[in-house]
Amino acid sequence: MLLFAGIFSYLFLMAGTQVLAASIGSTPISGPLNTLLTIVTDLVTGIGSIITIYGIFEFGNAQQSQDGAAKSFAIQRISGGLIMVIAPQLLQLFVG
Q: Which of 21, 29, 58, 64 could form a disulfide with 74 if both were Cys (CB 3.0 to 4.6 A apart)?
């Protein structure tokens, strides 16, 4: 209980402390975050491409077997993969 009171009082006293930012658009933080964003968008685009190609393959197999449910699932997989491919570009368009 004493530990909890000590932590609470420390946080209460530190609440009034001012913290100043270094500068607007500081590179020590924005550099690695931009790199992480690039890696994630490339990964999503790559996985979306693989899913789209697999959906096209499934659609071809469904055409040969004349299976309506398999065609539906293949079209859903193709459209989902295309959304994953286009999503990073749409995100940049909306964010600016």
A: 58
Per-residue pLDDT of 16-74, as tens digits, reads 555 555 556 556 777 788 888 889 889 999 999 999 999 999 999 999 988 889 999 99
- Residue the block writes with tokens 């790199």: 35
DSSP state letters, 25-51: T-HHHHHHHHHHHHHHHHHHHHHHHHH
The four Cα atoms 69, 72, 73, 79 give a dihedral, to 10 degrees, of 180
Count, in order, helices (H) and strands (E) of the chain.
3, 0
Tokens of 72: 């539906």
On the CB side of 89, CA atoms within 13 Å amount to 7
pTM over the 0.85 mark: no
**Residue (of 47, 56, 59, 28) closest to 85 by Cα position:** 47
Q: How far apart are the first and last CA of the chain?
A: 50
